[in-house]
Amino acid sequence: MEKGLLAGLPALWDLPAWWRAVFSRRKHPVLQFVRYGLAGVAAMAANLGAFVFCELVVFPVPLEAEARELSWSDIGQLIEILRNDIRVANFIKSNVVAFLAANTVAYVLNFLWVFESGRHSRTLEIFLFLTVSLLSFILGTLLASIAINQGIHTYIAKGADVITAILVNYVCRKFLVFKG
Questions:
Q1: Which terminal residue of the chain, N or C, has fewer Cβ atoms less than 10 Å from its own Cβ?
Q2: Residue 133's CB: how many other CB atoms inside 10 A?
Q3: How many CB atoms lie within 10 A of CB 43?
Q4: Predicted TM-score (pTM) of this structure
């Protein structure tokens, strides 16, 4: 019999029992974390699929260009340089579509399968969910846009964007949006 964090879970080698446990509604923290991870993979797949589709078909990104010198002392100049970079503009457009696709998948899976609703009214829950997502989206997009402008490949910058979103979203959804 396992003790501690694994108490009440199937034996580690019993894959069919783990499969049933993960796809149940049991509230065990390890199972919740596994479900969150799987929901995150589905949302990330939606995000990356929509992003790549937009980047290749809808808003094609021109060949990578040379990095430009950025001055952090003048935020207006930084915004102007980023605003006039077609690669950054197309990245942001593609990222907006990817954000919408990923958040639709993430909310549905988090609501139905991972967390328990009820901490807030449904309207407030959706508002908070999207607010947290928007915060991580803005932060990740800003960091990725600066990286792209500095000559980092678009897909590497997108990876940094995804990692930022995972970290911010999990903490905020677990402790601010849903119950437990």
A1: N
A2: 23
A3: 25
A4: 0.68
